[in-house]
Design a protein that fits this description.
Layout (H helix, E strand, L loop, with lengths): L3 E8 L10 H5 L3 H12 L1 E7 H11 L9 H7 L1 E5 L11 E4 L3 H9 L5 E4 L3 H8 L6 E7 L17 E9 L5 E8 L1
Parallel strand pairs: 1-5, 1-6, 2-3, 2-5, 3-4
Antiparallel strand pairs: 6-8, 7-8
């Protein structure tokens, strides 16, 4: 059985919305980059909503000068796009999951493979948190306070989270890994 993981960059005040480029200002370091690469490399499925998918497809799909491995991973990984309007994803290895996406994801999860990661896609993440399909939440907490903006858990049912890992990086960011407890 595969693991469904929500991975988000998040501010110290809980904001996941990146409308003012806070993520770029938060900074990075080789240890953080290595942790992000390890998370990426442990997955063979990528789950996103249509808006996030289209942005990533248009940015990463044609990119040829990327040395981070993100482009190669995104072009190779199986992508699952939750959408009621998209019919032709226009990016290799992409499957559109329509109105029955929850049942479809349950079937995909029960099949062979490794992690299925959902990142960005705030509305989809919230919808996932209202199901029993999410196994783990990985939060890369950035040393930046946004003050306002969309928060990951707004409008979701109460969740009990069991800590799995807490790791601090030289940039001031910290990885918080949690297992969702039923």
């Amino acid at each position: 059985m595969r693991t469904v993981v929500i991975t988000q960059n998040i501010t110290v005040d809980g904001v996941v919305e990146a409308t003012d480029d806070w993520f770029g200002r938060a900074g990075s370091d080789p240890e953080t980059d290595a942790a992000l690469a390890a998370q990426r490399d442990a997955s063979d499925g990528f789950l996103v909503g249509r808006i996030t998918f289209e942005g990533m497809r248009d940015y990463w799909g044609p990119k040829t000068d990327d040395t981070t491995g993100v482009t190669a991973h995104l072009n190779a990984v199986q992508k699952f796009v939750v959408s009621s309007t998209l019919t032709d994803p226009g990016w290799g290895n992409s499957t559109v999951l329509g109105p029955t996406w929850r049942e479809d994801l349950r079937e995909i999860k029960n099949g062979p493979g490794s992690d299925i990661v959902c990142t960005g896609s705030i509305s989809l993440c919230r919808a996932l948190l209202a199901t029993e399909l999410v196994d783990e939440v990985r939060l890369f907490v950035q040393p930046y306070a946004r003050g306002s903006g969309a928060r990951l858990f707004d409008g979701t049912p109460p969740q009990r989270l069991e800590p799995l890992e807490l790791r601090q990086f030289p940039s001031g960011a910290a990885l918080h890994r949690y297992r969702l407890v039923a």
